[in-house]
Fold each of these.
Amino acid sequence: MRRFWSVLFLLVPILGVATFVAAPYYNIWFPKDVSEHGRTIDNLFMFILWLTGIVFVATELTLFYFMWKYDEKSTKTPVKFSHGSHALELVWTILPAATLLFIAIYQMEAWASAKMQPPDMKPLVEVTGRQFNWDFRYPGPDNELYTEDDIVRTDGKLYLPVNEDVLLRITSLDVLHSFFLPNLRMKQDVIPGMQQSMWFKATDTGGYDIVCAELCGWGHYKMKGRVYFLPREKYEMKLEEMRREQNTMRAEIPEEDDE
Amino acid sequence: MSHSVKQFVSAVALLSAAFISGCDSVDPPAFRMNMVEAVSYETSSDYQQEIADVLGALFGTPDEPFALPETGLDQSKLTQSAGAAWSDEEGYNYGLYRKHCVHCHGVTGDGRGATAQFLNPYPRDYRPGVYKFKSTFNAAKPTDDDLHRVLINGIPGTAMPSFSLLPGSEVESLVEYVKYLSYRGEMETKLIQYVFNELGEDEEEADDGTITVTRIPLDPANDPDQRDAVMELLAEVVEEWDAANGMIVAPEEESIPADDRSPEEILASVEKGRELFYGKAANCYTCHGPTGLGDGQVDDYDNWQKAHKKFLDETVKMADKDELDDYEYALLGQREEVSESLYPLRNAIPRNLRQGVYRGGNRRLDIFRRIYAGIAGSPMPAGGPTGPGAKSALSEAEMWSIVDYVLSLPYEPASQPQKVTPKYTEAIAR
């Protein structure tokens, strides 16, 4: 028990690293990436994780070493206080500053392509957050939003083409929401009265989660949906199916049960 | 010494017993009595208890609901929806109602869940068994498919979200449970009325002239006549719901507009719809406003709020009376207590037709049905017949024109200011 505290503090880097090593096996790591730019985001994350991880482990080991070596019970020489070192101060100011500057420059392209350079096209869908649902408005055959052939869906299912540039327009009816597509590494806060844009290119077909990532009220957790990426042909069939459904004018009468 | 040890031990034992039993005695959620109805019909507390007992015998409790075979409700679906939320090892989910619905619609389905008072509009109170967005005639019940559609699409313009991501079987279970809550709520009101009309105090005059007053208890278990009467009431409730599928509004084939109308034909239909909108027969503009902004009238209430308003008004009237006897005074106390528990009244605001948000669905058929059957429970009247074979204020062709006009409204400027053309500016400048 003599060096209890130093060993306890040694557990911090060990358990910290173990958490990250074990995470993928317990399925608490990143969800599957199905976007073209997602790799850039993930690489940035991994780069910063390694950078901070190494510094973290080194710092913790130093802490452990000092605690072990200068343990109160076994160290008999009295403490000597010194008043710092100018050279050291310079080093640990300049080094982090340079690192931060490097990261700022290094990520610029990723930020610009995700948030500043929308593809030159009309939005495929307008996404509207409301307490507590995501509603979708497709421009319809004329490709123009807010015309009479728009298709409005409130069933929480969004259909988009795969392997193509997708531009979404995102708005809110009431309060702050955040349109989050974890599998596309995309998240955009929405502010009532403002129009936001989101763009990406999906690489896989299938259905993926839509969630609200900004606490928007007591029903926040209910604001989930699914985005489905379909090949062009099926996407167009789906649009046509939704257009037909909205134009339904005939009733289907359920057949009476014959007993 | 040994005495004080004994005292200490027994004190600890008593405390821990109280603690343990305290944990066990958390009351399971219970159905709440419809106090607006109960107090309106002057139901005594004895009768309230008896009505609750009869309802318990007919429908069970929120944790263990059951449906008599006469109701035709599916017991397994009710079991899956009721009780506390949990999942078994296969991932099969139970307690769906409490997981997804209860915080707005309440355990009793009275629209008074924990978050209900923060919503506008208030969540639906299922107990009267009236539903707005359905495919049937105004007075008819909704079909299962109608309730299903609302769960899948949510209700845009309100806080009702979509539940389309739940497995189909779970949505079906919830539909069954919502119907169960309506059956129960309707039955409760019928029992309260039955007690008011049929039971009460019986006066008996003995030979020597003394009058003994006895209360006739509501006890269908031991009174075969009451039993028959209660089952008759239940049959009335069930019958209406079972009739829903026969009351669906289906547009007649010959009046349905063609799919491939030319823009000119559509425009002509929109123009006709506009005339009807401002016309005497349809008379849409008096409520929806001269520009369709939903500001024609803003003072009306829906049926749920009307019932509360009536209750509040009668309470105020009673309080204003100069003299009250003891019985009336006690009743006033009850009325005031119930009045205070009600949420603030809200007006039923007609839809702003320029927003393009249609609560009952945005299919052309949905909008046609809103015009044809009106919106049950709201001031929106039926433009079509009130039931199969009844007289209709508007023809179906006219209603389809109104559909065209309504669907064009969000894209039509509310006013049409003249554009300034540069034609004369040079001449004037000179």
Amino acid sequence: MATDIYVWIAALLTLSIYSFLYKDNPLYKAAEHLFVGASVGYSIVITYYQAVLPRLINPIFQEGDWVMIFPTLIGFLMVSRFFPKYDWLSRITIAFMLGISTGINLPLIIQASLLKQLQGTMLPMTDINSILIVIGVLCVMIYFFFSSEHKGIVNTTSKIGILFIMVGFGASFGYTVMARISLLIGRLEFLFGDWIHLIKY
Amino acid sequence: MKCRLPVIVLLLSIISLPLVAQDKPALTPPEELTAFDAPNDAGGRIALTWRASEQNDKPGVSYVIYGALSPDGPWQETGRFPATIGFKSDVPYYFGLSEENKRWHFFEANKIEGLLESITTTVYFKLAVTDGANTVESSIVSSAPNGNWFDTSKVYILVFVAGFSFLILFFIRLARNNPNLFIRHIPGLDAIEETIGRATEMGKPILYLNGLHGMDSLSTIASTSILGKVARKVANYDSQIKVPCYDPIVMSVCQEVVKEAYVEAGRPDAFKEDNIFFITNDQFAYAAAVDGLIVRHKPAANLYMGYYYAESLLIAETGAATGAMQIAGTDSITQLPFFITTCDYTLMGEELYAASAYLSREPLQLGSLKGQDYGKGFIIAIIIVGSILSNAGVAFIVNLFKVF
């Protein structure tokens, strides 16, 4: 058995979370609330040291970069949500965020998800892989064509498209389950190794 | 006879000396050396090109680039590489895909201490070609780097954005004139009304999740848009919706969206801001909290719209265990299989983006969806034509869409 108090706390919290597999219970509730509270507290500290301090306080007060006051003011408008009379001001921040993210994402998505994919699809059909890629992409795109009823040739091609999608999902499912199993093994190694020392390293 | 042998060997050695020298031909000065501001950047980079030479470009030979702030020096080595590499064809981002680029060498001087510290300093360059024993130098060239307003290598993206925008605007106009534009049935969305009705009959709340991405994600934007439509139906049915959020900004947006939906439905009094709340932005703590919420409140319907990671199965499996009707919609390819296995209906990828237009049938969203559809039709046509031409050995279409 481990003698380190922190290993004991971690092991008991792990078991408390696993107890949810049986049913909801006070141990799970306690672990859940502790987990949520600790994660929020942790994220506040991380945000302060990785965002507020190096990107706001230091630039303004140490480097004299007063331009940073403008994004700070935009950020502070979110606080207006606590005052119902002025909560409309927070919409400026939200609109700013949405506008910026749309502007940044638009060219990136067109480049990475459209043009690069187009390049990778228009292949000389010299082997079975390239034939499958071209046929698969076309059929899947036809499945996602909403302006036409799935009848006749559209129905046939979209069904082939669904087949391709399901094969892809099957592979993805298997791969992800393998990754989850490795997470479980990690936890079991901790419980049986670090905690009760049944596994010897 | 014995004393003649060393003399013969000596004579033969002297005779063969010019022959050995002929095996290793003399190096020639690099030709047509040009220095110019590197295109498509913010300044601080200078590109050098010179003609490839059969005589110089051999193993064992190197190019050495020297830079200085004055044509009189002092000269500083800024780059050195084997003569068999470093061609214009290696950087199609600058020079395109012409075959001619294989016959030109290329070097980029970038952030050289003492030389290119300022983004607009004029720098002088000379090029030396050396095989270790011999070195020949080029003439001196100079250039000053400049920042560019436009990245011309991304012109295709501009063309695509402009083309798609035109299509979408055209169809929005069309949808305003004819709001009955056809959209095929999407079973997952048809079921939303049913789930809300079921929740109302059972007197239980509806749980709506927005996924783990912030407001900069397309799936979250689509999700908040669907939330508005769902919240309006919930307000009409006088049911309840709970929206636990992973991101504080998303929470603010959701509060606004739901509030507006209740106002539109004529039920502002029924809106409860506390039903849209922030939990945490830690993935598994969020999953643990949502799981607890599901088993304690037992919502009659769970809607999972947005982008998810490993928590998807934890949440959706708990929802399935409580017997709730579940509809998921995500463009997270790795998590879609888990939603398909645990939910009653799943909106895959683009169906999530289409959902808002499908539910509201507002001309603006309907036109956007139609425009995207015809954009897709255009892409399908390009793939077919491009593949046929690729098979025929014509790379024109493929090169046309090459981005760097």
